[in-house]
Amino acid sequence: MNVILIGLGGASGNILNNIAEDNSNDFKYLYINTDKKSIEDSLIDNKLYLDITKDKTIDNSFNEITDKILTHIKDNDKVFVIAGLGGVTGSALLSNLGKLLKDNNCLSIGIVTKPFNFEGKVRMEIANKSLEEAKSFFDKIEIFDNKSMFQYAEKETTFTEAFKKMDTRIKGYIESQI
Ligand SMILES: Nc1nc2c(ncn2[C@@H]2O[C@H](COP(=O)(O)OP(=O)(O)OP(=O)(O)O)[C@@H](O)[C@H]2O)c(=O)[nH]1
Ligand SMILES: [Mg+2]
User: Fold this and answer.
1) Low-confidence residues of the chain, pLDDT below 50?
2) Coil, helix or strand for 121?
3) Strand 47-49 relative to strand 140-145, pairing
4) What is the pLDDT of residue 77?
5) Three-state DSSP state, 111
6) What kind and span of H or E run contains 6?
7) Domain CATH number, residue 13
8) The total number of structural domains that make up the chain
9) Where would I find the H helices in the chain?
10) Could you tell me the residue range of the domain that residue 8 belongs to?
11) What ligand has the least distance to the C-alpha of 58?
């Protein structure tokens, strides 16, 4: 089965890098972000920079790259869409991409993270709103709660280590779905 992982926004960039790094799967990858630096630094081969600096809404910018996205996914059986919810980019693009995939009869699984409590109410609300909107477009959405990350951690566990563990769990989840 062909599998493509599409990442939306900064958190997904880190998650894709961590999954792609060990080369243990022949997944295809596509990374989409509005952050030029993060796109440039990403290890992923296929990436699309969304320029929202020039007076453009994120939705309009997305509509300009839908053809490009479709060229990457046309031959794939299963599309996993990864986004860390709570910021602007991933949260806004989740429904846009979900709808595009649904309109093109792609089997889609969303994989999202929810913010830590310490990130505040506003980011949690953005995350919940995004999830609510995206629900109807995806065949399934799996939620990884960032606050669960430190549940089994030692006192000295750093964020980087904890994120890596979370990314390993996400990778395991994807492998269990194919
Ligand atoms: N698991 C995991 N979660 C992360 C990571 N980085 C950020 N997050 C979470 O993801 C949420 C969204 O962050 P980003 O992905 O950076 O946001 P964005 O979608 O790029 O949005 P903007 O930067 O605001 O345009 C944050 O609020 C964190 O909860 C990461 O490396 N791993
Ligand atoms: Mg960002």
Assistant:
1) none
2) helix
3) unpaired
4) 80
5) strand
6) strand 3-8
7) 3.40.50.1440
8) 1
9) 10-21, 36-41, 58-64, 66-73, 89-103, 121-134, 159-176
10) 3-176
11) 1
The confidence score (pLDDT) of residue 25 equals: 86
- Which of 14, 99, 127 is closest to 29 using CA atoms? 14
- CA distance to 6, 29, 42, 69, 72, per residue, from 46 (Å): 10, 6, 10, 10, 9
CB 144 within 8 A of CB 127: no
Q: What spacing in Å lies between the alpha carbon of 102 and ligand 1's midpoint? A: 25
Are the CB atoms for 109 and 138 separated by under 8 Å? yes
pTM for the whole thing?
0.96
Q: Taking CB atoms and a 6 Å cutoff, what residues make up the pocket around ligand 1?
A: 9-11, 14-15, 34, 84, 86-90, 113, 115-116, 119, 123, 146, 163, 166
Ligand 2 centroid to residue 109 C-alpha, Å: 21
Q: For residue 93, which amino acid is it?
A: L
Which of 123, 149, 163 has most ligand 1 atoms within 8 Å of CB, for mutation?
163
**What are 57-108's pLDDT values in tens digits?**
999 999 999 999 999 997 778 999 999 999 999 999 999 999 999 999 999 9
